[in-house]
C-alpha cells in the first residue's frame, strides 16, 4: 500500500532522514520506534508532503505522491493524527470532527460521525464542548477521530500515547486494534512506548538518527536483546 524508497529529507542543511526504505502492506499495523530526535515524526510528515523529500520517492497504492500537495495526498486516502494532538481548541468537538470530514465522500458525514462516536463514547458526551477545555486523553481521542472522519485507507499516528495516563493509553491502543481488525484499516504508528507499539504491531521498524537500523515482526523485535536493552529496559 505504501512504499518509501530512498527518501532523504532536510531541514535547511540538516539531513533528518538519510535514505529511508519502508513498506506497509494493506491491512497491517506497522510501528516505528526510536529515541527522541531520531526522525520518526519527520518521516510521517514527509509522507504527507511537508516537508518534501529532497531525494527518493513515496508511493501510495502504486501512485507516486512525492510531489503532490498535502491536501491531494489526504484526498487519496491518507490521514494523520499529529504529535501533540493539534486539535482546534476554540472549536467544539463536533466542529473539529466536521473539519476532518471535508475531504470525505459527500453524504457520509452522519455515518462516519456515528462510527467515531461509537469508538470514542467520551466524545459523544463532549460533542458541544470546546475542544481546548477537554483533558489530554479526550483531546487525543478527538485528534484520532478527526483523522478517521476523512475515511482514510492509511492512518498515520504520531505518538498517540504521549503524556497520557496508563488507563487512557490502554483505551487508545484498544481502539487502534479495533479499527484495524473491524474496518481493515492500515495503520502506521510512531510511538515512544515501544512495548505497546511492538505488542500491537504486525511488523515494526527501528529508526536511529535518520536511518532504519532494524526491522521484523513486532514479536521478533520485542524479543530482540538489542531492542530490549535500548527501548524496553531503560536504556538509550
Spell the H/E element sequence. EEEHEEHEHHHHEHEHEEHH
Strand content: 25-35%
List the domain count as a whole number: 2
- End-to-end Cα distance, whole Å, is 32 Å
State the CATH topology of the largest domain: Rossmann fold
User: Largest sheet at a glance?
Assistant: 6 strands, mixed
Overall, the morphology is globular
Number of helices: 10
CATH architecture of the largest domain: 3-Layer(aba) Sandwich
Parts with pLDDT < 50 across at least 5 consecutive residues: none
Rg value: 17 Å
The average pLDDT score comes to: 92
Structural class: alpha/beta
**Quick one: CATH superfamily of the largest domain?**
P-loop containing nucleotide triphosphate hydrolases
- Strand order, main sheet: write it out: 6-7-8-3-9-10
Kindly state the number of beta strands. 10
Provide the helix percentage: 25-40%
CATH class of the largest domain: Alpha Beta
Protein name: Branched-chain amino acid ABC transporter, ATPase component
GO molecular function, one term: ATP binding
Keywords: Amino-acid transport, ATP-binding, Hydrolase, Nucleotide-binding, Plasmid, Transport
InterPro entries: AAA+_ATPase (IPR003593), ABC_branched_ATPase_LivF/BraG (IPR030660), ABC_transporter-like_ATP-bd (IPR003439), ABC_transporter-like_CS (IPR017871), BCAA_Transport_ATP-bd_LivF (IPR052156), P-loop_NTPase (IPR027417)
